[in-house]
Amino acid sequence: MEISTLLNNKTLKPSDKSTFFSNYILNGNYSIDEVINFANKSSNPDKANCIEAFEYATKKQPEIANKELFDFVAENISSTAPRVKWESAKVIGNIAHLFPEQLSKVVPQLLINAKDTSTVVRWSSAFALGEIIKLKTILNAEIIPVVAELIKIEEKPSITKFFELAIDEL
Question: Could you read off the pLDDT of 16-49 as tens digits, one per residue?
Fold first, then answer.
């Protein structure tokens, strides 16, 4: 089944599409490069659906990620489309441990997104930053002071929880 056919299937609920899509990726029916190529030519809603499928897949099997996927989501965390931003951040959180040498490319934008007006963008950025903090890299010197300030001003406990749990693990 072509990716566009799956995404345009009106008989599936949106959550079922994401599950089917991620299983197609995990089973090798769609390669990572194939999905990235499709996403890069797509509208923001379809791009977000592709990234969400990567998020589901990398949550189950982070090791499927390659550098192309990391670069793709790294590029898309600065999207103007909130859903593209938040799905990209979730993928980064799932695969950060596989690409510690590449994380300096995403930390500045994740810190910006952690101050976004969208709660879901902030939540996803906090998740990714929390996972990066847990890796105990040199980037923590840049991240932790900003996160300490964010904890003071963030109104949503579900967001500050990611930061606090990560810092507690240090």
Answer: 899 999 999 999 999 999 999 999 999 999 999 9
The type of residue at 58 is: T
CA nearest to 120, candidates 150, 86, 93 = 86
Apex CA 123: angle with CA 111 and CA 18, to 5°?
120
Asked if the structure places residue 5 within a domain, the reply is no
How far apart (Å, rounded) are the C-alpha atoms in residues 86 and 1? 27
Whose tokens are 């969208």? That residue is: 118
**d(C-alpha 98, C-alpha 160), whole Å:** 24
Q: Identify the CATH number of the domain in which residue 60 sits.
A: 1.25.10.10
Chain segment 139-167, per-residue pLDDT in tens: 999 999 999 999 999 999 999 999 999 99
- Domains identified in the chain, total number: 1
Q: How far apart are the first and last CA of the chain?
A: 46
Distance in angstroms (rounded) separating the CA atoms of residues 68 and 73: 9
